[in-house]
Amino acid sequence: SLADAMGASSVAYSIAVVAQSALRGLFEDLVPKVGYWPVLESPRPPENVETGRLDWYIADGGNLDNSGVPAMLQRRAKRIVWWNNNFKIPRFVDFCNSSLGDTVAISSVDIFVGDKFGFSPNILGGRNQVFRKDALLPLMCELQVLFKAGKPAIVRRPKMEVVKNDWWGIEPYTVDLTLVYLDEVNDFVRALPDETQQEIKSGTEFPTYPNYKTLFENGVGIDELSSLTDAQVNLLAAHAEYTVLAREGLFKRLLSA
Q: Based on CB atoms within 10 Å of each CB, which residue in 3, 8, 50, 175 is the most buried?
């Protein structure tokens, strides 16, 4: 269900809990567990011998990929709207005047974006290239220009070239790709009540807006493990609504066909 998917995406602590026996005893009940039925040979004896069901912990997917893009390309999706909600667009780099040899510029790109273009700091992400390397900086340049203009960072590539990826089982083709990058939108903030604008500037109620932390946004206690306040949720929801409505025509064309 959608609730299950949203719950799984919020448990970034699962890997640490399951991997460490000391933590497992304390927090195992906070880690979702579901039944799976393997298509091929089972990797271990099933929990339910009669049905062949295996029980697995489920967790935030950032351990392999944090976008869902490779899975959609596996299915040869014709149109993809990619929501990247991890890190803000770098402020100290000018992507429009950078080259692929600029290690500072390349390393500043969100790792869950850069890995899709063949730039990854870790082994797992190194398997995730699905687009040409030379397509990254023009994309980041356009996103950065929109951000600086106070607009939602949304860029469309109607004929994005997909490269072969044996590990994911992806064959080359062309996809209609739209990337929505979560970051501050000054036009939206200026439209908010003065009181809310002051709260955002103060950093008290919304210290990391709009890129809230996966864990401990509001403290380090067990009750605050992955929680957000009502105000934080409502502000982010309004932010997302503004972002979509700002490009309403685009989304209608992409999702209604």
A: 175
Secondary structure string (H, E, C) spanning 176-237: EEEEEECCCCHHHHHCCCHHHHHHHHHCCCCCCCCCCCCCCCCCCCHHHCCCCCHHHHHHHH
Of the candidates 56, 200, 225, 118, the one whose C-alpha atom is nearest the C-alpha of residue 109 is 118
Query: What is the rounded average pLDDT for all residues in the chain?
Result: 88
Q: Phi-psi bin for 60: left (phi > 0), alpha (psi -120 to 50), beta? A: beta
Residue 175 CB burial class (10 angstroms; 0-12, 13-18, ≥19): buried
Question: Which structure tokens are listed for 39?
Answer: 């298509």
Of 176, 4, 187, the closest CA to residue 77 belongs to: 176
Neighbours of 166 (CB within 10 A): 8
Tens digit of each residue's pLDDT (9 = 90 or more) over 159-186: 999 999 999 999 999 999 999 999 999 9
Is 24's pLDDT higher than 70?
A: no
Question: What span, in angstroms and rounded, lies between the C-alpha atoms of 103 and 235?
Answer: 35
Phi-psi category of residue 179: left, alpha or beta, with phi > 0 → left and psi -120 to 50 → alpha: beta
Number of residues that make up the chain = 257
